[in-house]
Specification:
The structure holds 2 protein chains of 2 kinds. Chain A is mainly beta. Chain A has no helices and 11 strands. In chain A, the strands form 2 sheets. In chain A, strands 2, 4, 5, 6, 9, 10 and 11 form a 7-stranded mixed beta sheet that branches. In chain A, strands 1-3-8-7 form a 4-stranded antiparallel beta sheet, with no helix packed on it. Chain A is globular. The chains are: A mainly beta, B mainly beta. At the A-B interface, strand 5 of A face strand 6, strand 10 and strand 11 of B.
């Protein structure tokens, strides 16, 4: 079974530029998550999708971050314009139902962003 | 809002010995779920062990076990017979009664030395 796929693995940009990250969850998983993991910290949830609808985006900086999951499968996270403090690893994860008491959360390898 | 605290930024252990990683959390809910996740260097995070708050029995998965103290809001992870492959970041995490809203602690970097 294929895992959660993310690309690109690494990206270096200058501040005020834009960047997009792509995630393809495990087949059949209805719930998709984007987390931001700053170096030395635990992952912080940015947005959670259930199929193609947003369940929680309360911690997403909406003035610069956007995310979509138009067909309820793969997802794109965009940052525009990027700031220095956006340097982090962006983790995508998926689960079958979104109820973590019954199922696991599967993570991708992450996309490491460096903003100069 | 729930908070998860891991007070040990780094730990080391000799191969084959036992190590315990600490985690405390704060919540007003009576039922919830606790997890330990492992993040090896440059590899994806994986679930190590899960504990349901209404179950008094501590969860065990092979060499990994937890000490869940509900009243103290403490959830420590014990790794027995440590192996070099256990070297990783370990994150404690909390999910609410609905099984969503996963909140992570800051992590503990564990180094297993030969």
């Amino acid at each position: 079974e294929a895992g959660v796929a993310q690309s690109p693995r690494y990206k270096i940009i200058e501040k005020r530029q834009s960047v997009a990250f792509w995630c393809n969850p495990i087949s059949g998983h209805a719930t998709l998550y984007w987390y931001q993991q700053i170096l030395g910290q635990g992952p912080k949830l940015l947005i959670q999708f259930q199929n193609n609808g947003v369940v929680d985006d309360s911690q997403l900086p909406k003035d610069r971050f956007s995310a979509e999951r138009l067909k309820g499968v793969d997802s794109t996270l965009k940052i525009q314009p990027a700031k220095l403090e956006d340097s982090a690893v962006y983790l995508c994860a998926s689960s079958f139902s979104g109820r973590l008491n019954t199922g696991e959360l599967f993570f991708g390898e992450g996309s490491r962003l460096t903003v100069l | 809002a729930q908070t998860v605290t891991q007070s040990q930024p780094e730990m080391s252990v000799q191969e084959a010995e036992t190590v315990t990683l600490s985690c405390t959390y704060d919540t007003s809910e009576s039922n919830y779920y606790l997890f330990w996740y492992k993040q090896p260097p440059s590899r994806q995070m994986i679930l190590v062990i899960r504990q349901e708050a209404y179950k008094q029995q501590n969860a065990t998965e092979n060499r990994f076990s937890v000490n869940f103290q509900k009243a103290a809001k403490s959830f420590s992870l014990k790794i027995s017979d440590s192996q070099l492959g256990d070297t990783a970041m370990y994150f404690c995490a909390f999910a609410n009664n609905a099984g969503n809203m996963l909140t992570f602690g800051g992590g503990t970097r564990l180094m297993v030395k030969p």
